[in-house]
Queue: 2 jobs
Job 1
Amino acid sequence: MLESVRLYVKRTDKVFWFFCLFSSAMAVLMLASWAAEQGGGFAVDEITGQITGIGDFRRAMVQAASAGLGIVIALILSTVDYRSLVKVWPFHVVFTWGLVLPTLFIHNLSLGPLTIGYNAGDTDNYSWYKLAGFTFQPTELAKISFILTFAMHLNNVRSRINEPKELAKLLVHLAAPILLIHIQGDDGTAIIYGIIGCCMMFSAGLSWKYIVAALAGATAAISAAFMFLSDSIGKSYQWYRILAVIDPENETNWAPSEDVWKNIVYQQDRGEVALGSGRVFGNGLFSGGYYSVPNAHNDFIFSWVGNALGFVGCLVVLVVLIALVIRTFAIGARSEDMLGSFICAGVGGAFLAQIAVNVGMNLRVLPVIGVTLPFYSAGGSSVTMLYICVGLVLSVHMHNKKKLFG
């Protein structure tokens, strides 16, 4: 047993593990400190004042337990050759998308303790399952299946990727899950899928002429949709969130009423104030003032980092997360085959996209689209799925012999 542990430690990427474990430990600490500011964290009887439950500390405990479970899964998965996971693609495609598809048509259907198509927020997103108080978003698991299948597809056509016929097939492969998730109502996740696919195609050698043409076409399409089709594409609150970033003071009167305007900008207003209130070194983890921010434990956890640990704390968090992304791409570069490289490009692209979008939301330079910050945002299922991605990257590392410079 000890010999197996020693061999694993020798073969695995210890630096990569450090970045992951540091981020998880920081996440639990940040959520615990956030809970302590929510009326002491514990649930308290209003009459007697006695503690009746763990209250908001539950989120930190779930985060820690989910990270522990995810670490075990990542340890096991890292010992499995990633090629074998790709070979069984029909099984994980049927399983993961079999969980996603019912949520397209079924909304808040309760079957005993299970709710299918659960709405976890105040939008039209019914992409969740709820079981005995715990929620699970199947598109997170399907994301892993997509990375594996798209990597396989790229590996099969890598020498012909710039042929129009093969590129068209790849775009259909990418568009299918994006459209399904858009219909489901979770455009934030759909955007992350799109970025993952683009990162993987770029790593496969997609010609710059296609990249430039795609960027130009996307810019033109978005501009046209914004100017002429805003009433028929998307939902009103989505356009309002975009306009809230462009014109936060409603000088162009984009909001139909002052109440709508205040409701749309409220979350980012509070997040911006919370971030700035921490200044250089923060107000402290378990003391000091805090500006209440909706979903501060989830989408806006970065605002709590800024409040509690200040600019220095935000910098440390971002440096470690970006280092994790760079390490992921580096492992892909050392892979002995392109399949491993494509998998790492997909996982690294997912990490990078979520970090950039979430921080952009908190800094008020991007609209709020419900994208979480990896490791830090509260959510047991998302943390577990994250560690499955970690296991895939470590599998690539442990099953290749190629060196980066030789």
Job 2
Amino acid sequence: MLLAQLGINEILNDGATTAQSIAEGWDRQWVDLLQNNTDNNLYGALTNLGVFFAVGTLLIFMMQWLKDTINDDYSRPISGLIWPFIVVLFLTNTGSGTVLSNLTLGVRNFVNSINEQVVESADVDRTYQQAINMSIAEDVVGSLLRPCQSLNGEQQRQCFVKATEKIDILWEEYRNLYGDRPWITRLENQVNQVTLGTGVLSEEAFNSLIGSTAQITIKNFLISLQSAFQNLIEATMLLIAALGPLAVGGSLLPVAGKPIFAWLTGFFSLGIAKISFNIIAILTAAVIVNGPAQNPNTNPDLMWFIIFLGILAPILSLITAGAGGFAVFSAISNTASWVKSASS
């Protein structure tokens, strides 16, 4: 009951939020868009538009096909006949989705399963959650002790007693989650030195423990940024999935770089960005949890970690995804050129 009053449960859960829980929150949106009532929903409308594009590009395709046939170039017409069948197969809407929508949902689930495996294998000790909650613990402690700073005498003592009762619940919850970690003991000892006067805590360490409202606001903003980035990845993947029928409809154009290849590249690039972000976040958190956090006498600077998560890690993961996407697109294009030359 007291935990609920303090909102500590929410704080712990917020600190433990990962891309996995964010992806699960988007699951219903994916199913609603790609499989439920696709006769009347947004995906159905885009599928109809894709069919319209396909009809238009089919005319161009047939003109090129007839031209190649007249010129006795039979290798291209025979191999090219597969594209109209693919377009028809992918864009046939049964009301519960198309072949394309089901494949898209399957690819998205596959990317998420790989992402979950990466998180589970790389974050066995929940280092990411520990690093986030280590910063959150300092903010919670500071918010509870800060009102006592301006008091004196018995009033300050009573304020410390009440604050300690609430903070002790936080330590208990952290130990239930992660065991008796050195960083928990360090924070607990520092709080006891302030509230019980059991030791001498330097003014710098005291101010660091108490923190400031501005610092907490910045931390919360940066933590929200990394959550916003992960939600942006999911929203962008869903947008690209919705545009799939247009990419398929335009794939009958007689050009080497088929729109469906660019569409697939964009989809997989976002999957690479999602996985890259989690790897970066987990490895960076491990540097803190397995390094300075193991020393009970060290106060690690966690602001750089929060800045890294909120700003630098998203940028780095997008750069990695862009490079990976370019490599995938080049491989697909080279494969298509090789098949074309081999058939001729």
